[in-house]
Every structure is written in C-alpha cells, then in structure tokens.
Amino acid sequence: MKLNIKELTLKEFAAHLVERKEPSYRAKQIWQWLFQKGAASFAEMTNLSASLRARLAEDFTISRLTVLRQAVSRDETKKFLFGLSDGHSIESVLIPESKRLTLCVSTQAGCGFGCAFCATAVLGLKRNLRASEIFDQILEASRSLSHDQRITHVVLMGMGEPLANYAETVKALDVMTDTSWGIGISPRRITLSTVGLVPQIQRLMEETKVNLAISLHAPTDELRGRLMPINRKYSLQQLMDCCRSLPIPRRKRITFEYVLLRGVNDSMDDAIALCQLLRGIRCKVNVIPFNPHPGSPYQRPDDAGCAVACLGEVAFQKSQLDRKTTVATKAACHTFGHVFRVGYFAPLGAASDALPLWAIAGAVVLAIGATALAPLVLNRMTDHGFRQWTRAIIWGVSATYLMRAGWLFWHG
Ligand code: SF4
Question: Are the C-beta atoms of 214 and 257 separated by less than 8 Å?
C-alpha cells in the first residue's frame, strides 16, 4: 500500500531519497511543491526528472481533504465541511477581518471533553487527526482563495482539543511555520486554544512559539466544574499557577476566552471575580456572546451589549493591569476603581512589573533634576578631583536610569 508522503518528516523523506540514490536536497524541493505551491500530484513538480516523478508516484500518494460542503455568510465568513478518508468529517472556518484572513482549524474529529455549552461535545470523540489532516485544512482552504489572497493567521480552535492530540498538533505546527519549505506562517500569527491541560500547556510553551488561548468561561471552580468537566482534573488554581509560571515573552499575552451565557456567567459579580482571578497575569480577555445551537439549554445574554461592555471593561483593565505591580479593584455597577502601586525606582531594579511610561517620566525628572542641581553642588566643592568624581557619578546614574527606562519602553 502506498504511503501518504505528507505523513513523513523532511528528514525521513530525505533519508528515503538517499536510499534510492537521489540527492537529499531534492526532499526540500519536493516539500516546497507540496506546502508552498500546493501541488496535488507529482506530475506538477516540473523541476524534477520524469523518472523521479514516476518513482515517487509509485511509492507515495499526496493526501487531500474532500470538500463536502462550503457555506459563505453575509460577512464573508466561509465555513468548510471536510471529509476524511475514513468517512469522518471536520469543520474549518475562514474569517476575513480588514487586513487579516484567519483560518480556524480542527485537531480532532469530534471531541471528548464534554463542555456543556459546546456543539462539538455532542458528537463525542471520533478520533485524533493526523498532522497532515490538520495542515491540509490550510492547503485546501487556500485553494478556494483568489490569487491575491493568502491565509495570514491560523487559530487552532475548531473541533477538538489540540493538546489532547499533542504530537500530531506539534508536527502540524512545524509544517505551518517553516519558512524555507513549509507553509510559512509566523508562529506569532498562530494561536492554539486549550481547555487547560496543564502539563501539555507547559510543554507547548517550551517547545513552540505559538500564542496561547485558554477557554476559561467561568471565574470559579464551582461554575467552571459544571460547564467544563476538565476543571475537576485541573482546578482554576492549578491553571492560574501554570499561567503565571509560563515563559511568555514581554510583548505577548495569554488570551482567555469567555463565552457569555445568560444568567450563568454574565453577572457583574462574575466580572469582578474574573478580574481578581487573572490578577498578575499578562493577558487579554476575549468575551464572546453565546451563539445558541439546537438542543442547547444555554442562551445568549438578554442585553449582550451591556454584559459584553462589563466584561469588556475587565479586558481593558487587564491590559492596564499587566503593567503594574498590584491592583485593588472595587466595583459598583459598571464602575471599576483601581489602586496602582508603581515601582518608580524600577528602572534601576526589578523592572518587570513597572509601568514603562511612569519609568520614562521618572527618568526625565531625574535627568532634569541632575542637570539643574549638579552645578549647584559642584560649585560648592573646592577639591577639583572630588568635584570630577561627583560629576561622573551624577551623570553615570542618570545615564543608567535613562538607558534602563528606554529599554523598558522599547520592550514593553
Ligand atoms: S474542548 Fe473545545 S471542542 Fe471540546 S467540548 Fe470543550 S469547547 Fe467543545
């Protein structure tokens, strides 16, 4: 039986070519045909000899997904139903937004995590997708685009839990992100969403550079346990401890997704609890009004605008909160107050929690103060050598402070 060529890694395929007395660099050329030019047959690979193309066709197949259905909504969002070789089907959604074209891909056929509000949960888990079935969604969706369009972003938020299919998901990410032979989407433009499998989250952040999104949907263990059974295995405390310990680069944030369910998780108390839960985590909150589906007991909030505004306020607070050392939050209806404690000496010390703008302002004041005071101090000194030393120290400290503040500002 022929092997699907996309199931091999570049290294494995290069070894295969060497065994057949072909130069190993051909592997990269063939990979470019598959992933950059979207070749669907070996015959299209015109920079290979006819004999090599014939031998490849004898040994391998090139997998493709079958487009079972395609639907385009009024806002141009395109939904694909793809058929797999064993009869199962998966969904992908192409979402155009100003300059972005985002594809939401699936990582499992069905899902076994049983989240109470999720339409996919009803299907149960059919099986994990192979790596090729994950990245083939990008290749197949790309075929539906015009020649000047390109998928710019990918979110792993379709059917299934990507981290429950860890090895194949990471293998697919390698193909998606490689720029020399792969699809070439920057990991900064790829977001993986998880229900919160703590050990795999840590591993993913160590092994890849993709963005992390966590399906949170509730601010307390009691409520989250009801909505998401996974919370009984990994509590909110464990999940938040994990998030706080992740090596997230300064310019990145974790996204927390929060689906608003009427009368379940959309109160102001929930908003406050959410804000307190996320304290100290550099993140943003993505608030999504529930999209009702047949058979679901949940509903979209009555006044979605109001509830979203409240929780949107939380998201805004979080964007501010990320840059400070502590926050105290009290809330009346629609009103949140904060107490900031800013590390104004941070440019010289542990800077990670400081507000860069405050730090810059502090540095400027110090520099002006040093400029104004230095002549006064120096003129009172009679010893020339001592005066020189004092001048050097004042300017040295000011310059260090300024440089550190500049670094903070630049690196956010
Ligand atoms: S993990 Fe995701 S796909 Fe699975 S049931 Fe929960 S929300 Fe749905």
Answer: yes
| Ligand 1 atom showing the smallest separation from residue 159 Cα | 3
Atom of ligand 1 nearest to the CA of 111: 4
- CB of residue 113 inside a 6 A radius of ligand 1: yes
- Compute, in angstroms, the gap from residue 68 CA to the centroid of ligand 1: 23
192 Cβ inside 6 Å of ligand 1 = no
User: Does 106 sit in the ligand 1 pocket, CB within 6 Å?
Assistant: no
Ligand 1 touching residue 194 (CB < 6 A):
no
pLDDT tens, N- to C-terminus, the chain (412 residues): 899 999 999 999 999 999 999 999 999 999 999 999 999 999 999 999 999 999 999 999 999 999 999 999 999 999 999 999 999 999 999 999 988 999 999 999 999 999 999 999 999 999 999 999 999 999 999 999 998 999 999 999 999 999 999 999 999 999 999 999 999 999 999 999 999 999 999 999 999 999 999 999 999 999 999 999 999 999 999 999 999 999 888 888 999 999 999 999 988 889 889 989 998 898 989 988 898 988 899 999 876 556 656 666 666 555 555 543 222 222 222 222 222 222 223 333 333 333 455 566 766 777 677 777 777 776 776 677 777 777 777 777 777 767 766 665 554 3
Q: pTM of the predicted model, to two decimals?
A: 0.76
161 CA: nearest ligand 1 atom: 1
195 Cβ inside 6 Å of ligand 1: yes
